[in-house]
Amino acid sequence: MLLEAKGINLRFGGIRALTDVSFSVRKGEVFSIIGPNGAGKTSMLNCISGRYKPQEGEIIYRGKNLIGRSINDRAAMGIGRTFQNLALFSHMSVLDNIMVGRHHLLKNNFFTGMLYWIGGARKEELKHRRDVEDIIDFLEIQHVRNEPAGTLSYGLRKRVELARAIAINPDLILLDEPMAGMNLEEKEDMARYILDLNEELGVTVVMIEHDMGVVMDISNRVMVLDFGKKIAEGLPEEVMENEHVKHAYLGEEDELLHDDEAEAAAL
Description:
- β1 and β2 (about 15-25) form a beta hairpin.
- The chain contains eleven helices and ten strands.
- It has a six-stranded mixed beta sheet, sandwiched between helices. Strands 2-1-4-5 form a four-stranded antiparallel beta sheet, covered by helices on one side.
- The protein has helices at about 40-50, 70-75, 95-100, 110-115, 120-140, 155-165, 185-200, 210-220, 235-240, 245-250, 255-265, and strands spanning about 5-10, 15-25, 30-35, 55-60, 65, 80, 170-175, 205-210, 220-225, 230-235.
- α3 (about 95-100) packs parallel to α6 (about 155-165).
- It has about 270 residues and is an alpha/beta fold.
- The chain has two domains: about 1-80 and about 175-265, P-loop containing nucleotide triphosphate hydrolases (Rossmann fold); about 85-170, no CATH class.
């Protein structure tokens, strides 16, 4: 397994955001996390990326426990991330926004800076710019490479944020609602880019997404959270037939869960 979460518990004061959540992600798959609003999906991504530190549990990535490691350490280990709310530098160009994603890859230091005149640092910068241009070509944003990110349409800005996440050369990328707010055409484009990222570049994807059509079409496996608890995991078609999942999405009282809890209390 590329990634394993074991018994994750996350609390904010008296509020439980995640309760004993465990799952695994295989190398090379698209793994989607779904659930109603407030189910704990983004909290789970934040635990993986390092924005939140769970009170209990382990997150194992390539055999190493991520708990206690910084966000920058996790990026250096090959974990990229996009956000539900755009986090671009609006005044900076598309090219420069993507270059920000490569900062931890820069080898330039004081010594190489002193030797700049022999071209070492310059060569390094040119290599990174070539790599960024490849990403720009991959996501078909050549026509806006020099435009300020804040002037772009919403769909293009989401694509630029994906480009910046790709720029760290991730083995694992965390996508938080990559298609939120998009029209049908933009969603179709983004779904294609995610599949190409996974299939052509070999990047493992963990994705939060509310569009069930997209989830069913591009996911290898799906996990469902509800009120911070995992209620289902498996193939997309199996998960969508799960009675607990149906109740969670319909917003109805889940009689099955209450029956289970009543039976447990009677023991």
